[in-house]
Amino acid sequence: MTTRRMTYREAVREALRESLTRDKRVFLMGEDVNRYGGAYACSLGLPAEFGDERIRDAPLSESAFVGAGIGAALGGMRPIVEIMTINFSLLALDQIVNSAATLRHMSGGQFSVPIVIRMATGAGRQLAAQHSHSLEGWYGHIPGIRVLAPATVADARGMLWPALMNPDPVVIMEHATLYNEEDELPTEGDMSVDIGKAAKRREGADATVIAHSACVKKALDAADMLASEGINCEVIDLRILRPLDDETIIASVRKTHRAIIVDEAWRSGSLAAEISSRITEQAFYDLDAPVARVCGAEVPIPYPRHLELAALPQPQSIAAAVRKAMRR
Amino acid sequence: MIEFKMPSLGADMEAATLVEWFKAPGDRVERGDIIALVETQKGAIEIEVFNEGIIGEQRIQPGRKVPVGTVLATIVGPAEEEASIPAVKTTKPVEPRPQERLTRAEEAPAPATPPSLRITPAARRRAAALGISPESLAPGSDGIIGLAQVPTGPERAHRRGAGLDLDEMRKAIGAAMVRSHRDIPHYWVMHAIDATPLFEWLETQNAIRPMERRLLYIAPLMKAVALALKQVPELNGHYKDGVFRPSPAVHMGLATALRGGGLIAPAIRDADSRTVDELMDVIAELVPRARLGRLRSSEMTDGTVTLSNLGEGNADSVFPLIYPNQVAIVGCGTACPRPWVVGNAVAIRQVIQVTLAGDHRVSHGRHAAQFLTRLSELLAHPEGL
């Protein structure tokens, strides 16, 4: 099978192109997606292929254009709504939580909202607090939506189409530091990926490191460092933040007896807290160390480079948490 | 200079991993000192030295698996001043940690006094699966008992620090028994023995003894078996390279079932010349140690005969296979009340069916009958044991 090399950004763009081509009901809407090519250049070039009708610029008005997207979905379209960063999505939270997530339930199953909302998330690009937060856990809290976090180029390429085929709202979080990541992808065939299961990115027997999004790469880097010390980590990429794939997580912890959760978000009330609880609920008797969490510092993400790095989980801090769990 | 080699710890052992040295070059050792820990298919075994002298060079470092016969270290023979130097106590016995029972306190215990036993859930579970009391485990340097501090169980093997791997042990037992079944022409003779006097004697003994001095019937039974074997030397010793070497002393391997399906038969030396109380003490000390997977090399190799007692099970009798290179094994079924002819009447008596498996190259059925008759006589008068 031949492969080609592409970036995460190109994978997102190709996924958009595929969706727009495969289904006439699909359109992309968001701030700057047309004339500017999207905040992270994901839709660059698409207006020329698909026209202004299907690549639609929206005003600075998240609540309005997400609401319009929900209306379009109710009307039979398959909208992809892009929000520049997860921080701004709070302006549309009422639409997402009170409308999109609830309508199937409140209509007794008569209406579904097949909308896909894409947003960039995370820190690491010196964009300061209002562009750098990781609020995935807030979305993970909400029943009625599916939350995806592609950490690899393949997932960035393969998650969009199954998300569009999902009859309920799907939120896809793309980490802003991943857009330039490159990987090999097959040149042909169905690129779709399973949007139900977590993925084991590395096999190991000594400790389970659970991460998502940009932290998967850091966890793998930590695992490489630890392997030279004789500690073999299993690295789980959550991929789907809601519903969480308990089965994969618990099976791994039962095997390794140790769990370290890496989450760029703040520790208090985080997704990491939820996963930690599930592990103690379901695998307490298999644990050989307290469940450990490596999370972002509980501060607004700082602007200066060194402070920003210090506020985020890093391979060194992940490795230190693993060593502690190993009592080394 | 003496070459200290990886010993063969049984008919089935080909290689073992050196886990730890208890002595360093320059240390003086005496006969019987434990100088190393090796991990075999039958658990971690403490290796004793049979010479005295000073450790020279340690050629093998911990972590390496080496075949039987590999030189592990050199020992420089005794100098002029030998013999008078007292043996150095080398083993660090695991102190049982008294468990502070936390009463249902209204308040949490003060943070200044941590609970005496800090054990992880996984370690507690594995210890329970292996039948090990958590209090008997030594915590790590941080005061916590984790999986690393529990001997390895069936769930995972080959953790440094050693212990039992029941799958490996089953393989070793299998290999030894295949060899036994193939190479030893077995015969079996069974005899039902009225053990009522033994049980009556035990009852009166235990009634007047303090709790910690009470006897289990395995102790007088072992003594009786050992004494009966003394009368039939053809059943006690080793058969190797076509030659039978009877043993003047009875070193009795006691088949010990381990939780999870393992089986091991550590030897109790001089079972014939110890008192019943001494045997009880040895058994009480040896069985938990066997279950922890911490036996000594001499206990693995010294056995001259094996006793397999079904104990509290419900099976009437057992037809055991001889452990090579021994030449006999005694199998005792469960003691059960049976109708039994006493004089001209039928009475209810406690009966044990004892089977002797012998090696036909060395003995035959008459030897077995002789042994069983003698055993029967001895058990009729337990007070004389």
UniProtKB/TrEMBL annotation, chain A:
Keywords on record: Oxidoreductase, Plasmid, Pyruvate, Thiamine pyrophosphate
Signal peptide bounds: none
CDD domains reported in the protein's UniProt record: TPP_PYR_E1-PDHc-beta_like
Superkingdom, taxonomy of origin: Bacteria
Ranges in coiled-coil conformation: none
MF terms (GO), sorted A to Z: pyruvate dehydrogenase (acetyl-transferring) activity
InterPro entries: THDP-binding, Transketo_C/PFOR_II, Transketolase-like_Pyr-bd, Transketolase_C
Database matches in Pfam families: Transket_pyr, Transketolase_C
Domain Transketolase-like pyrimidine-binding residue range list: 6-181
Cofactor(s) the protein needs: thiamine diphosphate
EC number of this enzyme: 1.2.4.1
Name of this chain's protein: Pyruvate dehydrogenase E1 component subunit beta
Organism: Sinorhizobium fredii (strain USDA 257)
UniProtKB/TrEMBL annotation, chain B:
Family the entry assigns: Belongs to the 2-oxoacid dehydrogenase family.
The organism of origin for this protein: Sinorhizobium glycinis
Keywords, comma-separated and alphabetical: Acyltransferase, Lipoyl, Transferase
EC number: 2.3.1.-
An annotated GO cellular component: cytoplasm
Co-factor(s): (R)-lipoate
Domain of life: Bacteria
Biased composition (Basic and acidic residues): 92-107
InterPro entries: 2-oxoA_DH_lipoyl-BS, 2-oxoacid_DH_actylTfrase, 2-oxoacid_DH_E2_comp, Biotin_lipoyl, CAT-like_dom_sf, Single_hybrid_motif
Disordered: region residues: 89-120
One Gene Ontology MF term: acetyltransferase activity
UniProt protein name: Dihydrolipoamide acetyltransferase component of pyruvate dehydrogenase complex
UniProt domain Lipoyl-binding: residue ranges: 1-76
PANTHER family in UniProt: DIHYDROLIPOAMIDE ACETYLTRANSFERASE COMPONENT OF PYRUVATE DEHYDROGENASE COMPLEX, LIPOAMIDE ACYLTRANSFERASE COMPONENT OF BRANCHED-CHAIN ALPHA-KETO ACID DEHYDROGENASE COMPLEX, MITOCHONDRIAL
Oligomeric form and interacting partners: Forms a 24-polypeptide structural core with octahedral symmetry.
